[in-house]
Amino acid sequence: MTLKTIVERERHLPSQAGVFEHIAVLYHPKIEATEPVAEEICAWLQGQGLTAWRALTWDEESVRPRLADCDLVIVLGGDGSILRTSRMAANCATPLLGINMGRLGFLSEASPDNWREKLPAIFSGDYWIESRMMLKAAAWRGDQQLCEHLALNDVVISRGTLARVVRLRTEIDGERLTTYIADGLIVSTPTGSTAYALAVGGPVLPPALRNILVIPIAPHLTLDRAIVLSEGALVKVNVGTDYDAILTVDGQYAVDLVDGDRIEVSTSDLSSHFVRTGKRNYFYHMLLDRLEPRQIDDKI
Q1: What is the mean pLDDT of the chain?
Q2: Which of 79, 154, 250, 261 does the annotation list as catalytic?
Q3: In the chain, which segments carry CATH 3.40.50.10330?
Q4: Cβ 43 vs Cβ 74: under 8 Å
Q5: How many Å apart are CA 247 and CA 163, to the nearest integer?
Q6: What is the separation of C-alpha 100 from the centre of its chain, rounded to a whole number of angstroms?
Q7: Does the annotation mark 79 as catalytic?
């Protein structure tokens, strides 16, 4: 990493300890339990003399512009809610604090049971900021750009509704890698390595890394190993299909693809920032805590 890169990254770091004054509290519209907790948190924040407002995570059009004036975003829901909010907050580098009211909670820092202990510590300056890389994905049909999206987890090019393979000619930095004949291809961040990529047998990458993971989904008579790329790599995928295919970003945006479409994925200049209160090596304990109980439950 060059000195220039370090300086540029430091320049865009979010608020430092003790200066959170304007806070957004976002809750999930389909998880009823999140709204009363959001109300309690807002009341507590306002009782400390802070400015706080609440809204639905799905109200992106109205929420996104307001985040630029916030020092902190508290997100109530599951990992999907945090993924959605991370994309909204990326342009203004506003840090997020996740309160897990979903299932796994890989990205969360607190729970409905302990936020009353966590928040006072955070607002007294007892926290650190974790930055995670994001991807930029663009889809093209000839010279026409179909879409461009940010991703914190992953970009997936896959078959459509029919169980028919797609042919994905893949280039890395302009050089042909291979043509995957598969159900699809995942291009993932280290954050996404514990999501879809993990489910298809990919390696787990610590979130502090800035690498790109490329892993096929159910490949047939073709390269079946995950590949880890450097931060600056450009991945181009040309779609070959006799039926339909689809591009999904963080499992939330979907774009229909046809034969000949092209996907380009690279590291974004933007990052997501998270408020953390535990040790800086928390990830390994958290990973085992999320995975081991499920293995035990399966055996009972």
Answers
A1: 90
A2: 79
A3: 3-126
A4: no
A5: 16
A6: 15
A7: yes
Angstrom distances, CA of residue 97 to CA of 62, 74, 208: 20, 5, 17
- Banded pLDDT at 105 (limits 50, 70, 90): confident
Region 3-126: CATH code: 3.40.50.10330
Calculate what percentage of the chain has a pLDDT beyond 90: 82
Q: Which one-letter amino acid corresponds to residue 200?
A: V
Q: What is the CA angle 94-100-102, rounded to 5?
A: 120
3-state secondary structure 127-167: CEEEEEEEEEEEEEECCEEEEEEEECCEEEEEECCCCCCEE
Q: What is the per-residue pLDDT across 180-226, written as a single tens digit (0 to 9) for each?
A: 999 999 999 999 999 999 999 999 999 999 999 999 999 999 999 99
Fold of 134-270: Tumour Suppressor Smad4 (2.60.200)
